[in-house]
Amino acid sequence: MGYEPRTQAIYQITHRKPIPVPPPESLEDIWAADVFSLSKMQACLPKGVFKSLKKTIVSDAKLDPSVADIVASAMKDWAISKGALYYAHVFYPMTNATAEKHDGFISVQNDGTVISEFSGKTLIKGEPDGSSFPNGGIRSTFEARGYTAWDVTSPAYVMETDNGVTLCIPTVFVSWTGEALDKKIPLLRSIGAMNESATKVLKLLGNEDVARVNSSCGAEQEYFLVDAAFANSRPDLLLAGRTLFGKTPAKGQQFDDHYFGAIPERVQVFMQEVERRMYRLGIPAKTRHNEVAPGQFEIAPYFESADAATDHQQLTMTILRNTAKKHGFACLLHEKPFAGINGSGKHVNWSVSNATQGNLLDPGDTPHDNIQFLTFCGAVIRGVHKYGPLLRAVIATASNDHRLGANEAPPAIMSVYLGSQLEDVYEQIQKGAIIGSQPGGIMDLGVETLPTFMKDSGDRNRTSPFAFTGNRFEFRAVGSHQSVAGPLIAMNTILADSLDWIANKLESELSAGTELNTAIFAILKEIMDEHGAVVFGGDGYSADWHKTAVEERGLPNLPTTADALPVLTEGYIEELFDKTGVLSPRELESRFEVYSEQYILSIEVEAKLVIDIAKTKIYPAAVAYLSNLSTTIASLKESGIDFDTEILNKVASLTSSMMGATSKLGIALEKEDFSSMKEHMQYSAKTIRPLMDEVREYADGLEGEIADDLWPLPKYQEMLFIK
Ligand code: ADP
Ligand code: MG
Questions:
Q1: Which ligand is nearest to the CA of 289?
Q2: Number of other residues whose CB lies within 10 A of the CB of residue 642
Q3: Which domains does the chain have, with CATH numbers?
Q4: Among 56-60, 132-136, 518-522, the range of highest mean pLDDT
């Protein structure tokens, strides 16, 4: 009989009964069925109340507190009709998580009877303990007040789980002193700042009617599915979300046969349920497919406004995890669950648009004469160059460090890919003579029966961290488990700053009598002269780029989180957030503290797990194998047979090397005297992490030597291929 947990897991998986497929429901029947949407509010609220609420939602007018009681009562009745007994204020703390505090509708009366109650006051304001969430020193435990405040712009919904139904109210989270403790407040502020600058520019460009400008986001979510029985017998997957040990399998992804392959049946049933639950919550799931690695998949929604997309993206991650459990899977959102196998990212597609001018990053067919597009795109180029290190900092996590620059994901150097047509237009601008735009041309497939179609004017570049993809930018370096709020806040804010800079220049040029086109092209030329170095269309994975980017173009390469996060403490970043009103210096500083602490803690947890697994799982297996081997060799020797002891020696030597590295790691973890967070982060990156790798190297060597039935941890080929 083999090692129990691992063989039992395989038995359990190969004997799983298929989960019944529910009967199909029409999209019309289920779409947003669990959302307390505008139309539902309109149906049940008095006319005046609805009008006042809608004004707040649509045009950012202040919420009239007198309507709150009526809305709360209607919301409660609707939720109870859906089976809810509890409500929760849902908020997004500075971690990448979603937090919620549940309260019952129950209210006990004087005579001991109970009624369901939900007042306007409890709808508008909740009070979780502000000090129990990471706050970067803003709230110490003795001054714990933190409030959640109803975010009227994001609709309430009911969340159905096997354990019951809960009314969820999206909120923002602030400290008693009024500082943002979450990711939602700065996101809303960044949209406001961007709107203000964009409106100024659009008016200067001659538009009279300018509607509110918002940013849009469509996030492609990559994830792995591993059978829950395997995940449960791997403490590393369970606690750290990634495998800290595991030898590369004979077959990995080298055949490239998984990408876009047929979706396995069990996974398809899972995906359909995920989509059903998303549709019920009004989340427009659109595409699903296999990803590059075995066991890896992707789901992408139709894009929405940045604030709605952010809430919906958090919900998508929750739904993926919960639904996976129900289907006997563990959904891994970690950026690098398996070494040597492709990691997971979250491409954040982003654009800016409004109801009057449309998508401001749509170049049309002749971008060279589309002044509005060239201005907005130029503003992005300036922003990515000037604040590249900020974009690197907002995607910096311990887990994403495993992926960036690993020849499958964009490098840690920020550059912009424009595509050949746009690159050419901006080059013309820089030279001062605009001739025209290269056409995309017609794609002729050379087969009579196949249709010809217009080619896109530029190819795609998978190696760029920040790529223009036709009518939007795609920030490809974002990590799969991250909230999209951080990247969106950064993009909106740098755009606000650039547009503001452009507006000021343009205003003074125009009032000096310069003609509009001349003024714009001069500004764009200045942008290209100063910031054109960030535009790069070549292979971002190549060693050559790493060299020229840094040495010739002066673009910073910040390989680890320990290098990238300190950017948040630099003066020009503080100034950017302060002058746009997105984050006060104190709020920014608290974010640096929280993210640094998370980095240090997650490496510490992993290091402790490495020690634990090496000592209590791998060492005993190695010793058992050594003892089997030496008994056999001794008895052979007794019968006069001389048996080769090479393997015995190799296993013995790997085992003692592994234990040697393990104790070095244990000693390294004891160090506590750090002069700063920055120093501590560098220590985690440069001392702890390499020691963890050292332990792993010996352990993975042992996996290749020790008898299969003694090996305690599910192996890579089992986790990736048994479905
Ligand atoms: P690919 O894998 O080729 O990058 P996908 O179709 O998987 O493309 O995803 C593209 C994503 O970009 C989708 O979520 C889509 O809704 C989103 N998107 C399209 N247009 C915009 C836009 N104007 N703003 C933001 N996101 C957009
Ligand atoms: Mg993509």
A1: 1
A2: 8
A3: 23-182 (3.10.20.70), 190-583 (3.30.590.10), 599-721 (1.20.120.1560)
A4: 518-522
